Amino acid sequence: MSRISVRGFAVASATAVTTVGAVVGVAAGSTPAVGDNNFEATAADTTLLADIPAGQQAQVQTASLTQQADAQASAADATAKKSAEESARIQAAKDAKSKKQAAEDQLAKERKAEQDKKDAAERASRSEVRSASAFATQGSYSVAEVQAMARQMIPGDQFQCFSNIVNHESTWNYRASNPSSGAYGLVQALPGSKMASAGADWQTNPATQIKWGLNYMDSRYGSPCGAWSFWQANSWY
């Protein structure tokens, strides 16, 4: 079979040329140029279906339709690829969001566990605190003895703050007295008689003074450390 140079095929009539398939130089479905010269040039470069031997017309038509089908398939592939890429992008964003949420949930869980651990330790510490009545009364107490009593009465995480205040107020002298103000004892209660609410022996028993001082700091500042923070800012509490 001889090669037929067909850039497209057309059916001629007395008044128009209808393009079938893909015609090079004439866009599918477009209107031919009006000028005689252009029309003649186009016609000269176009093989009419009528000019093709009858036995080859079907092949030409089939080739044109195949070309159109290939073009449509290529366009469909491009659309499908674009859709797949968009779907992948959306899924990746969802996955990233899920991972971020999972990480935040895990962090919150770990923080809660840590806080629960601290709370349990604090409760355990408080449960081991001795009351003022647990100490035998003595005629006098050394600084070391008073501090040892305080360590047993003050929660472990609060002792240093309590100690800081007592160091500044009385240097751990349970008989310390301020003649000008009337403040008295380890925590310099003003007036000293306030400590009677913790025990009648408030003037001579450091355990009673420690009990009163701890209750005062807890009720007014939330804790000895809260009282110490206030003291640092104001030099009194």
Structure commentary:
- The chain contains 6 helices and 2 strands; from the N terminus they run ββαααααα.
- It is mainly alpha-helical and 237 residues long.
List its salient traits:
Transglycosylase SLT domain-containing protein; 237 residues; 2 strands; Transglycosylase_SLT_dom_1; 56% helix; signal; mainly alpha; 6 helices; 3% strand; two-stranded antiparallel ribbon
Write the layout of secondary structure elements.
Layout: E1 9-12, E2 17-20, H1 36-44, H2 54-127, H3 143-153, H4 159-169, H5 206-221, H6 224-234
Helix pairs in contact: 3-5, 4-6, 5-6
Keywords: Signal
Protein name: Transglycosylase SLT domain-containing protein
Biased composition (Basic and acidic residues): 83-129
Q: What overall form do the CA principal axes indicate?
A: rod-shaped
Q: H/E order of the elements?
A: EEHHHHHH
The low-confidence runs, each spanning 5 or more residues with pLDDT under 50, are: 1-35
**Annotation field: number of helices:** 6
Strand order in the largest sheet:
1-2
Q: Which structural category fits the helices and strands?
A: mainly alpha
Number of strands: 2
The level of helicity is: 55-70%
How would you summarize what this structure contains?
With 237 residues, the protein is mostly helical.
